[in-house]
From TrEMBL:
InterPro entries: aa-tRNA-synth_II/BPL/LPL (IPR045864), Biotin_CoA_COase_ligase (IPR004408), BPL_C (IPR003142), BPL_LPL_catalytic (IPR004143)
EC number in record: 6.3.4.15
A GO molecular-function annotation: biotin--[biotin carboxyl-carrier protein] ligase activity
Transmembrane residue ranges: none
Residue span(s) of domain BPL/LPL catalytic: 12-181
SUPFAM superfamilies noted in UniProt: Class II aaRS and biotin synthetases (SSF55681)
Record keyword Translocase present: no
Entry protein name: biotin--[biotin carboxyl-carrier protein] ligase
Length: 246
């Protein structure tokens, strides 16, 4: 359970051997009335998924794949900010392991210019599921992401204890998510200093099609500040950003 795992209140850990997706497991538990803070970790996901319908591959025993149930007090409108809080928590946990982490807004976590973790937040009627996939000791990646994916082990040239990394992420997440409605400015400041997109030419994949421009930073509300080719500075929300070249 949570205390044994070194988790702060109210987080409680449930470990499953094999599931399709931990996000679905947590969604199901939420529907059955599970409380805020339930964490489901799976040793194996048979249908792990990423944003925009992509598959998420997490080799059993080498990576972390887990989902956190979050129930209000955070008002629903603030739920996109959960993704920022989660990405930051992962980045900080990696740093406490001695690595230098970057955040690719909104919520990918980078090590050495490659992706080490991804986050998929899905909202229900009165809850949100924060799914986190982190490459801990993985050394092999599927063909499609080879060259753009990395792991803690590859970057640090040593292995890590997955339980310790998990507990550190949960501890950091407990602190950062409390800042969503109380001290968002501090949360954003911590994201900003880790943002790997600032100054880069990017394409944002939005519902209305791609929008290209130069990233000027992150706005106080957590949106990306994009200077578009027409010279206007826009506040953007998106779940996917493509870096177009340095
Ligand atoms: C992304 O980068 O596109 C997000 C990846 C999210 C993967 C995690 S692994 C645990 C949880 N369960 C899922 O099916 N997906 C998330």
């Amino acid at each position: 359970n949570g205390a044994a795992a070194g988790f702060p209140e109210p987080f409680r850990l449930f470990v499953r051997e094999s599931v399709e997706s931990t996000n679905d497991e947590v969604r199901e538990l939420a529907r059955m009335g599970a409380p805020d803070g339930v964490v489901v970790l799976a040793e194996r996901q048979t249908a792990g998924r990423g944003r925009r319908g992509a598959a998420w591959f997490s080799p059993p025993g080498e990576s972390l794949a887990f989902s956190i149930l979050v129930k209000p007090p955070e008002p629903k409108a603030l739920w996109p900010r959960l993704a920022l809080a989660a990405g930051l928590a992962v980045a900080e946990a990696l740093e406490s392991s001695g690595l230098t982490a970057g955040i690719k807004w909104p919520n990918d976590v980078w090590l050495g210019g490659k992706k080490a973790a991804g986050i998929l937040v899905e909202a229900g009627a009165d809850f949100a599921v924060v799914g986190i996939g982190l490459n801990v000791n993985s050394t092999e990646f599927p063909e499609g992401v080879r060259g753009i994916a990395t792991s803690m082990r590859i970057e640090a040239e040593r292995e890590f204890e997955r339980g310790e990394v998990l507990a550190e992420i949960i501890r950091r997440f407990a602190i950062r998510r409390a800042q969503i409605d109380r001290d968002f400015e501090e949360l954003i400041a911590a994201v900003r200093v880790r943002c790997v997109l600032t100054g880069k030419q990017v394409a944002l994949l939005t519902a209305g099609g791609p929008k290209t421009g130069i990233v000027e930073g992150i706005a106080p509300g957590g949106e990306l500040l994009l200077r578009t080719t027409d010279g206007l500075e826009r506040l953007m929300q998106a779940d996917e950003v493509r870096v177009l070249g340095d």
